From TrEMBL:
The keyword Transmembrane helix applies. Pfam families: FecR, FecR_C. This is Ferric-dicitrate binding protein FerR (Iron transport regulator). GO terms for molecular function: sigma factor antagonist activity. Coiled coil: none annotated. InterPro entries: FecR (IPR006860), FecR_C (IPR032508), Ferrdict_sens_TM (IPR012373). The keyword Transmembrane applies. Keywords: Membrane, Transmembrane, Transmembrane helix. Residues 303-370 form the Protein FecR C-terminal domain. Residues 167-261 form the FecR protein domain. The chain crosses the membrane at residues 69-88. It comes from the Bacteria.
Amino acid sequence: MQEDRLNEIIRKYKAGTATEEEKAFLECWYLQYQEQDDHYYDLQERLEDAEEVWGSLQKQIHQSKQFMYWPKIAAAILIVAFGSIYFLRKEISSVSDTQLVKQDVPPGGNRAVLVLGDGTKISLTDAKNGEIADQCGVEVKKSADGQLIYTIKDEQNSSEKLDSNIIETPKGGQFQIRLPDGSAIWLNASSSLKYPVSFNGAKERKVELKGEGYFEVAKDKTKPFIVTSGNQDVKVLGTHFNINAYKDEACVKTTLLEGSIQVSCEQNTELIRPGQQATLSNKHFKITSIDTQEAVAWKKGNFEFDNADIKTVMRQLSRWYDIEVSYDGELPDLHYSGSLPRNNNISVILNMLKKTGKINFKIDKKNVTICK
């Protein structure tokens, strides 16, 4: 990026007309050069109005306690590991503006299909807000904030027949559901949840998950809540946890945020505590303490990567952007760490990866090719 281009962004920043992407690049620049004293002061002298703007940027940065989760910076930066980690400390002249692509793919959104007990399918993407079904004394409503809410209207009828419903999110979709017991579940893209419309008369609250879901289970000591996902059962009385059980992932990951849960697979059973993750592979559990931020980032509207290889990154992108990914030739062994918002078009994310200087990409409608 040339000095005249940076001067233009600085002027727009001062005037309050800079785009979020321009702000992010400017803030990224500031952090890079602040740690390189000679270059920093030399740069400040050469740029118009730099001192005033740098002071504003410094104030913003000090207000943030955790750099990696500062939204605007995180939107522009990834930490990349080539054997060892470095922080995009390239000369400014090598940092080009975001390149435009002829075709782009927008992010996903609240999209899902509800399958009733009789097989009727209702598109929750198109359904109007308000009541959309009444089953066995249980009212089903779509709220204005994009939730599917189950409410028991008739206690007697709701316990006579335990019909099951299924909510399915496509690639590029997500949805939130609130069950009659008050439990809330967020479904990530390309996932499904099967559940009874009422837990009345049942000894347990049992649901089936495919894909990924975040659970906030309402407490009921008399009726345990059980989530079945593949070969794994998760048993709780009331707690917050995330399950990643996609078929194209190597293992099932269950991450606990609060309370306690029991995970089991055949004869193997483990108890996990808050801040721990149970990884199920080959019917055996591995329990580790982790930073739970990565596991629940999707629910908060972010991608979170921690030393993830390019194929792991692209699997997440393919689900959220509803794309097909292919690889052209052998790629370098890159690993990425960092946070990026999920509300950007895919070209923004791919350009961040491209700035490592080691990969490139091509977009053709819903097909993305990763290459050198």
